Amino acid sequence: MTASVKRPSHDKVVACRYLPSFPNEGSEISFDLENMDFDLCTHLIYTTTEDLTTIFSREWAAKFLENDYTKLVTIKNKYNHLKISLGIKFRGSTYEYQQITENTNIESFMEFAKDSLLEYDSDGLDMALDYLRGSDVSYGSNHFDFYVAFSYCEKFQKSFKPYNLLLTLSFNAEASDLVPPPNHQYIAVYDDFDDYDMDTDVDLTDHMAENYAALAKNVDYIHFTMLYSTDMNFHGLSDIEIELNQNIDNIWYIIKTVIQSGVNSSKIVMGLQFFGFKLSKNSNDHKLGAVKFEEILGYNEICDFHSEVKDIWQPGTVGVFNPYTLACDEVTLRNEKSYVFLYENTRSIANKVRLMMKYDIAGILASPINNDDYRGACDIPEETFTDFTVDQGSFKWIPHRDHPNFRLLTTINDVIVVTLHEMDRMHATKVVTEYCFYILYLLGAIVTLLALKFITINLWRRWKKWRNAGKYKSIEGSNVCLLENNKSDGKYPE
């Protein structure tokens, strides 16, 4: 498969997370890394189920080198711009640290880790944290410890930097675990992404938010993926609306909190998930009464379901929701069994990417790419740019691609291009406006100075004329007096 575009046509990060163990049940064609169009990615995270205690073991290395290693090398040779990192589970716990240092010191382990990555032809390591804020006390010394995590990152970076190896951290959790919840009511609808105020401060009431800044000093990027709650047993329309609207508010709040805590925006990568939820409902309740969580489905699986029932698929019938959130469609089968689907589609992703790019973050993490429409078979009608109010000229920058595959990943890249050009134009307009203001200010100053000069000169002339007039009268009076005196002296005839 050859695309007319080589590598993303922008300078932002598009990290693609691949899950080798992710099932593709029910698909006629299974996902294969070699069929992936990595012109749509800048980074590939090959995510394993291993942790620091096993990822560099000889047993895992032998298994990896025998299976996907050859594919990754082929991909790396084909796509010169692509950076490939190994993804692992990372507890950042005292127990994990003790396991690693049981038979060796930490410095030796770091050197071994670096040598192993070079042996795997990898460009770096992505560590996904399993436990946040030490909330899982049942694990005792196996819960997340900031100081341990900081020590890991500091030592890894010291070992990796001379070899230009990447080190990234991935925080995967519900929004309330990533940052403290916002102390405000969720707003129902935002008509434009400018409604989110970049200058609004947030309340840093939790030390975890401040710890991000310390961790960021020793990593290249920090990935934040907000997980959706699977506790979706809603009692009605209002419950779903609240869940959806919280989704976009949380994205805004996470970015604001992390930046305000001291993390440079150029190190922040926000995650988007390529899946959704299937909910069952009572078909007799046309107002969408109680719904119950059924299962998680990948975007490609929702597309497959749609292709089978497209004649009775009802897009957006559940209500008018915030377009930044998730698609919310309904289908009632012929057996009167009804389902509601909440999922990321091109429209919701377009709005979220546009909002994220407003904060000039490093980029987007797509997870997992296994769930995208990799066969190009999805025919769900989606109006990707419906909510964009930008000048149509911005859309001419969207690169042409020869393939219909990977709708969500393509949307991420296209929206980044459009938004960056939109922001450049807004910046240019702002600069022009400021220059015009300065020019008008300068012209006003010049006119004011000229007016002052004219007034000053005029006043000077008037004063000079007045003074000269006074002198003339004084001289004339003196002459009259002198003449009278001379007459009385007989010097002048009368």
Spell out the blueprint of helices and strands.
Elements: E1 13-18, E2 43-51, H1 58-66, H2 69-78, E3 83-90, H3 94-100, H4 106-119, E4 124-129, H5 146-160, E5 166-173, H6 175-178, H7 207-216, E6 221-226, H8 237-260, E7 268-273, E8 275-281, E9 291-298, H9 299-309, E10 313-314, E11 327-332, E12 338-343, H10 346-358, E13 363-367, H11 407-488
Parallel strand pairs: 1-2, 1-13, 2-3, 3-4, 4-5, 5-6, 6-7, 7-13
Antiparallel strand pairs: 8-9, 8-12, 10-11, 11-12
Helix pairs in contact: 4-5, 5-7, 10-11
Explained architecture:
This protein is an alpha/beta fold. It has one domain (13-274, 345-437): TIM Barrel (Alpha-Beta Barrel), CATH 3.20.20. The chain has 11 helices and 13 strands. It has helices at residues 58-66, 69-78, 94-100, 106-119, 146-160, 175-178, 207-216, 237-260, 299-309, 346-358, 407-488, and strands at 13-18, 43-51, 83-90, 124-129, 166-173, 221-226, 268-273, 275-281, 291-298, 313-314, 327-332, 338-343, 363-367. The strands form 2 sheets. The protein has an 8-stranded parallel β-barrel with strand order 1-2-3-4-5-6-7-13, surrounded by 4 helices. A 5-stranded antiparallel beta sheet has the order 9-8-12-11-10, with helices on one face. α8 links the parallel β6 (221-226) and β7 (268-273). The longest helix has 82 residues, at 407-488. The protein is globular and about 110 Å long. Mean pLDDT is 75; it is low at 1-5, 24-28, 131-141 and 182-199.
